[in-house]
Every structure is written in structure tokens, then in C-alpha cells.
């Protein structure tokens, strides 16, 4: 078989009990409730590295899902991303037991000032030897805004305007505050860093101001690999300027292809090459040694899933309380200030609440691939071919067996098909993904910025 395009493969998870496929924490073999144990995460890291995953992509929210039913009853009972712990603190421990696995961490730009955040990500880039990525989120939960003293979320497009300003300041800190040769570590001359190579950043933007020096010396990548997941028109324009990996949600290959082509047009309009961005789709896989075993496993998992918890999740993401909808009411019949692409997609497809419940067999709405190793490999290959995606964010089902089964059964079939690596490339996460070195490429908004 001729060589195929190599996929990007991330494990999609969260520092919580229930992430995407809700209710499966009740399965007797599931160990998601061990999320507060460090060995839970170091074990995951070792498993993913054995399967040559590019990264573990750790999602996060800073609020609670309180739209469905006007409260947190379902959210709390079903552990719908509540409780949820901080994601970045997991990285050093997972990095300590791996050498090739990358880390994509989700941090909301509203969580702290870019000045202190820049140091946190530089520290992680140092400690991982350049394996860190940042998933840029602008927030979509009113509950998160209220929790920190605001009346509610800013308007959708205003949140992206703030994110643009945040990134402009971060680029100055990461890329321009320290020259590459500023760090000398010269014991004899008693010069650790040459002050002539360090300059203050001066930023006076519409949302952020800063006058100060970046506190961290240049890390292997300087700027972490930039992930982003906005699919609205404004979100795509933001991605075209900043993102290196874009995470999309698509119910089928046709929708994925349409989204991918739209994103690549925006990337070109922003003056970048279409290949400067890797586009990944969220997907769930249930794999078995045989097709029959995979089908039996799916039925077993589905018996423990919670479609209602999936509705609570969707309600939070859309801003629409689906508990008020009748079974045949259209899901997209409403407006919200949350994730606009959710309601737009539901409206375009004409989904009703009954349709949505039908999609929630595993408690989550991502496309589901079921089969033995060759069948799973063929279907993922088809998503790359027909959907034109570059790879996948693979969701968890029953932990840890879902990861272990995928590595044992699906990975060899993917390798045999020629779409999954047989070894990690050397170097940083950015170099492994793009093969062009550690730094942001020319044409990126952060490349070549000045300090003022």
C-alpha cells in the first residue's frame, strides 16, 4: 500500500469524572473517579506514549453547567464536568514519565492577566522540553463570568476581540522580550543573562495593558503550539490568524469537509499557507478484537450511558434550556450567547430534542466508530480522505480500557494502513507536528513581533 498522509492523534480528556460520553463513570470497570490520583494520570501518559499519540488534549471549564432545568441537579448527579480540577498541574507529572507525548492544555483567557499567564506556559514549555500546547478559549458559560464577579459573559464577538488583544500581548512577551542569545550562563564572567538582550514590553491595547519584562527566559518553543476550537465566523477568523491546530465538531464527513474548506479559505485570506493549520475532528471509538466483540462492548457501554446528561451538556454549550423543549421541538429554536456553532448546526440539520437523544447512545454527540482494528483504521482513514481532516481528538469511554484497547488493537492497524507513525520525531511538539523547527513559522501573527 502506498504511504498515506500521517494523522495527528490526540487523546481528548479532562481533569474530571465525566467529560464527553456521560454516565460511563458508573460502569463497573471504569476508573474515572480516580481522577484525583496522580498515578491515574501518569498511567494514562504511559499508555498514550506507547500508542505514539501526539498529545493528550486536556479540556477545561471555569464554571458549571446550570442551564438545563435552571440548575445543577443533573450536572451534579451525573458528574457532567463537575467536579473539575485544574488542568495544567497534571502536565509536569505526565511529562516526567514520558519523552514523546505532547500536552495541550485548555486555559480561558479571562482566567488571569496575560503577563502572569505567559510565565506559566513558558515554565511548562521548559519542564516538558518543548512539548506544551495551549488551547485558547474565550469562555461560553455565564456561570463562569458570574463566579468571578461579572454580570455575565461579554458578547460572543467581543470575547474574540479580547482574545486578539491577549494574544498580541502574549506574543510580545514570548517572542520579543528576550533575545535568543541573552542567556549566557557564564560563571567566570558572573553573567547569567545579558541585560542588553532583555527588553520591556509596552502594550496598550483595547483590553489589556502591560509594561514589564517577561519573567521567564526563552523556552524551547517560546510560544506554545496554539490550539483553538471556535467554528463560528468570528471564531474562524480568529483561528486563521492565530491557531496552529483547530479542533472541530462535525456529525459526518460532509460537514467536516465543509468546515475544513471554510477554515482553509480563512487561513489563506489571513496570508498563511493552508497547511499551516492542522484540523482535528472529535470522534469516539469502540474497538474490539473482532467486529462482534466491538458491537457487544458498545451495547455494554450504552447500558450505563446517560443521554439526559448529554442534554445538560448541550444546553450549556448552546445556552438553551432543553428541559423546556418537547420531544419534537427543534433544538436550534432559540438564541444564546454561548457556542454559536452548536445552535447553527442544529438548525441547519433540523434536529429535534428526540433526534438529539437518539445521538446520545454513549452520552455524547461525537461521531462513533465501532469495529475491529482494520475496520476502525479504514473508517478513520475515510474521515481524513472524505472529511479532509488532519487527525482526531479521540474521546474516552470506559477508562482506562478504552485507551488500552485502542493502543493494542487500533494502533497496529493504523500503522499497517500507513496513516499512523511508528516512532516519534525528535524535537519539540511544534516540530513533530509540522517538521519545520521549534519556532512559529513566517506568516504567523506572532512571528517577528516587537516588544512595543
TrEMBL record:
Luciferase-like domain location, by residue?
36-317
Q: Which residues does the record give as FMN binding sites? A: 60, 106, 156, 160, 232
Keyword annotations = Flavoprotein, FMN, Monooxygenase, Oxidoreductase
GO MF, any single term: oxidoreductase activity, acting on paired donors, with incorporation or reduction of molecular oxygen
Q: Which Pfam families match?
A: Bac_luciferase
Under InterPro entries, the record lists: Diverse_substr_monoxygenases, Luciferase-like_dom, Luciferase-like_sf, NTA_MOA
PANTHER family documented for this protein? ALKANESULFONATE MONOOXYGENASE-RELATED, C2H2 FINGER DOMAIN TRANSCRIPTION FACTOR (EUROFUNG)-RELATED
Provide the family line.
Belongs to the NtaA/SnaA/DszA monooxygenase family.
Write the protein's name. LLM class flavin-dependent oxidoreductase
Q: What is the lineage of its organism?
A: Bacteria, Pseudomonadati, Pseudomonadota, Alphaproteobacteria, Hyphomicrobiales
Amino acid at each position: 500500500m502506498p504511504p498515506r498522509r500521517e494523522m495527528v492523534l490526540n487523546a481528548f480528556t479532562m481533569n474530571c469524572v465525566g467529560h464527553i460520553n456521560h454516565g460511563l463513570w458508573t460502569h463497573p470497570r471504569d476508573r474515572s473517579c480516580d481522577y484525583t490520583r496522580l498515578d491515574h494520570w501518569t498511567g494514562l501518559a504511559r499508555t498514550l506514549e506507547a500508542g505514539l499519540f501526539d498529545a493528550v488534549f486536556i479540556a477545561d471549564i471555569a464554571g458549571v453547567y446550570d442551564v438545563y432545568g435552571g440548575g445543577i441537579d443533573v450536572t451534579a448527579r451525573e458528574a457532567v464536568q463537575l467536579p473539575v480540577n485544574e488542568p495544567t498541574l497534571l502536565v509536569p507529572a505526565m511529562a516526567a514519565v514520558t519523552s514523546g507525548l505532547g500536552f495541550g492544555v485548555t486555559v480561558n483567557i479571562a482566567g488571569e492577566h496575560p503577563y502572569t499567564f505567559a510565565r506559566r506556559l513558558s515554565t511548562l514549555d521548559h519542564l516538558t522540553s518543548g512539548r506544551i500546547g495551549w488551547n485558547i478559549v474565550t469562555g461560553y458559560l455565564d456561570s463562569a463570568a458570574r463566579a468571578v464577579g461579572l454580570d455575565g459573559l461579554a458578547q460572543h464577538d467581543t470575547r474574540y476581540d479580547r482574545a486578539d488583544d491577549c494574544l498580541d500581548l502574549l506574543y510580545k512577551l514570548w517572542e520579543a522580550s528576550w533575545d535568543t542569545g541573552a542567556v549566557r550562563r557564564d560563571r567566570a564572567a558572573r553573567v547569567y543573562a545579558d541585560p542588553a538582550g532583555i527588553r520591556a514590553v509596552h502594550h496598550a491595547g483595547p483590553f489589556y495593558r502591560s509594561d514589564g519584562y517577561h519573567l521567564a527566559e526563552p523556552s524551547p518553543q517560546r510560544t506554545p503550539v496554539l490550539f483553538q476550537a471556535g467554528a463560528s465566523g468570528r471564531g474562524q477568523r480568529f483561528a486563521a490568524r492565530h491557531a496552529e491546530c483547530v479542533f472541530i465538531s462535525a456529525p459526518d464527513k460532509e460537514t467536516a469537509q465543509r468546515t475544513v474548506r471554510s477554515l482553509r479559505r480563512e487561513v489563506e485570506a489571513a496570508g498563511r499557507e493552508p497547511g499551516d493549520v492542522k484540523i482535528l475532528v472529535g470522534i469516539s471509538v469502540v474497538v474490539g478484537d473482532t467486529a462482534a466483540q466491538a458491537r457487544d462492548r458498545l451495547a455494554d457501554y450504552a447500558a450505563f450511558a446517560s443521554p439526559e446528561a448529554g442534554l445538560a451538556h448541550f444546553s450549556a454549550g448552546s445556552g438553551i434550556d432543553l428541559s423546556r423543549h418537547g420531544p419534537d421541538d427543534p433544538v436550534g429554536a432559540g438564541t444564546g450567547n454561548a457556542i454559536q456553532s452548536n445552535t447553527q448546526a442544529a438548525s441547519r440539520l433540523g434536529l429535534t430534542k428526540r433526534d438529539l437523544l437518539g445521538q446520545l447512545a454513549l452520552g455524547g454527540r461525537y461521531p462513533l466508530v465501532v469495529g475491529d482494528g482494520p475496520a476502525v483504521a479504514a473508517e478513520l482513514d475515510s474521515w481524513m480522505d472524505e472529511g479532509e481532516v488532519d487527525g482526531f481528538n479521540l474521546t474516552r469511554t470506559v477508562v482506562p480500557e478504552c485507551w488500552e484497547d485502542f493502543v493494542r488493537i487500533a494502533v497496529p492497524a493504523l500503522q499497517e494502513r500507513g496513516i499512523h507513525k511508528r516512532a516519534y520525531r525528535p524535537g519539540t511538539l511544534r516540530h513533530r507536528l509540522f517538521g519545520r523547527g521549534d519556532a512559529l513559522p513566517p506568516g504567523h501573527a506572532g512571528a517577528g513581533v516587537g516588544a512595543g
